[in-house]
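To whoever is on call:

I kicked off a structure prediction for a single chain this morning and the downstream step that reads the tokens threw a length-mismatch warning. I double-checked the sequence; it's 454 residues and nothing unusual in it as far as I can see. Pasting both halves so you can look.
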Amino acid sequence: MNTLFSDKFFYHIYPLGLCGCPEKNDFSCPAGNAFQRLTAELPKIQELGVNAIYIGPVFESSSHGYDTVDYFHIDRRLGNNQSFSDFCRECHQRGISVILDAVFNHTGRDFFAFKDILKNRENSPYKDWYLNLNFSRHSSFGDPFDYEGWAGCKNLVKLNVDNPQVREHLFSAIDFWIEQFNIDGLRLDAADVLSKDFLDALSRHCKQKKNDFWLMGEVVHGNYNDWARPGRLDSVTNYQIYKALWSSLNDKNLFELSYNLNREFGTGGIYNYSLLYNFLDNHDVNRIASSVKKIEHLYLLYALMFCIPGIPSIYYGSEKGICGSRNNYGDKELRPSLPPFSSNFPAYASPRQGACDLEKVINRFSAIRLNNPALQKGSYKEVFVSNELFAFARNFENQELIIAINCSNKNQKIQLNKADCSRGFYNLLNGNCLSSGQKEAEIPANWLCIFKKN
């Protein structure tokens, strides 16, 4: 198994939203103070148990950050290269790794290469930097040529990442980020539509530059082994488990979660050799507090995320139980300003009633995971499953844990017949013991137990 970053717990920051930046870049405003503000909040973030930050996009862009204008300059709405370098240095001094959002699949229309094509058309030296340029027809923007946009979005112009000059430009940007900011890895936006040959070349380049450099790809559909494999990426986003986590609790159908965990990590599981990136929400999907039907399940989900195979993460503000859903007008509610660091929540992002102690739960379970290697890189085996009860074992070297969850409204007893109970277990959460050979345990309503073998 690739165990790089197995001990990490991520805090995901979308800085343009969190810091309340203008929606459009006028390319003339003075540098913002986002990173100074974020630096001041690092102690609160660290209190959760966080030891890695995934932040981005941070480079100059026209609007939401994914329409890059300049890979070598921090977006002025956030700050400048020096302020971001200072932020990264403070993170590292606190033992926090920094992962940047790398948008290599496409650029914005204000990117220098695209602007040169607009000016010089077929005579532009950059005409081969983008895919499927067609000078025989106009684009929907009225340009004198057409081109491919990411998912049909013409303001996101798809790069030809197999062009040697494009690769040279992007790889030199990575070198700059490592040298200037000492970053520890990249989250590759839209990795599922990037050329596999490009990803392999990028991996070789990064690992030669920094051998413990971590690469994680945004992948929604498909076989994750196509991306998370030796010589390519270290991890990908686990959207399959994301859906199964909250859906199984909402529907009182823990067979859904059981099936997906078995498929991915059980005996013969297809992702047994990968540490995938787990999440309950992010900047593209509804906040988990808006997705779960019962507030009690919000606590159970965060506790469970630290116990299943993979690398756990939390999206800014969700530790306070804030709400937010996509709607017909866009995804602004998913990316609100200030909520993690202020009591002045936007009306649409107010914390869900009853979520007041969520931060304590996250802190508690992040510490349990950090102190138990079986939860970081242990094997997975199902022990019991029914509609509302589920138990599984995690084993690593001489450590064995059994995690049992109960999503019903009353205490229930669970059978541990598939577990080796010959030495007995004790509950890490309350110290209660299961005696040697005991095959039944009572699990509190809407909660879990973590049993550790004596």
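Update from on-call: the warning came from a stale cache, not from the record. Cleared it. Sanity check on the structure: The chain has a mean pLDDT of 95.
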